Each structure stands twice: as structure tokens, then as C-alpha cells.
């Protein structure tokens, strides 16, 4: 996804490729994105937890 948080993060998504999230152009930045915008000390890399799916055995 490509975002443009200016002028408003409420309609920030500008383009999407390989859409797995179900979000669409014109949708808002996520809550995580809003936290990162508001806090310059927010981590730039956030690691996901390990999957417990049977497909990852």
C-alpha cells in the first residue's frame, strides 16, 4: 500500500498491490499507523509473533 497521510490520515490509502487486507483506496491509516505518526519514538520495526498454523510445520 502507498499512503499519503497529508492532509488527512482518515483517507490515506492511495494505491494497493496484492491486497490481502481487504482495505481499499481511500481507507484510513491503521491504528498502528496513527500511533507511529503521533509518536516519533515509536519503533520503526515491529516483529510479528511466530505463527502456530499447521501449515508452517
Give the arrangement of secondary structure elements.
Elements: E1 2-3, E2 13-15, H1 31-38
Antiparallel strand pairs: 1-2
Describe the structure.
The chain is largely without helices or strands and 57 residues long. Helix content is 14%, strand content 9%. It has one helix and two strands, in the order E-E-H. It has one helix at 31-38; strands at residues 2-3, 13-15. The protein has a two-stranded antiparallel sheet. The radius of gyration is 14 Å and the shape is flat.
H/E series: EEH
- Secondary structure: number of strands: 2
Strand order of the largest sheet: 1-2
Give me the secondary-structure category. Answer: little secondary structure
Radius of gyration, in angstroms, nearest whole number: 14 Å
Share of residues in helices: 10-25%
Whole-number average pLDDT?
A: 77
% residues in beta strands = 5-15%
Low-confidence stretches: none
Query: What is the 3D form?
Result: flat
Secondary structure tally, helices: 1
Q: The biggest beta sheet, please?
A: 2 strands, antiparallel
Distance between the termini: 29 Å
Q: What brief labels describe this structure?
A:
two-stranded antiparallel sheet, little secondary structure, 14% helix, 57 residues
Short note summarizing the structure:
The chain contains 1 helix and 2 strands, in the order ββα.
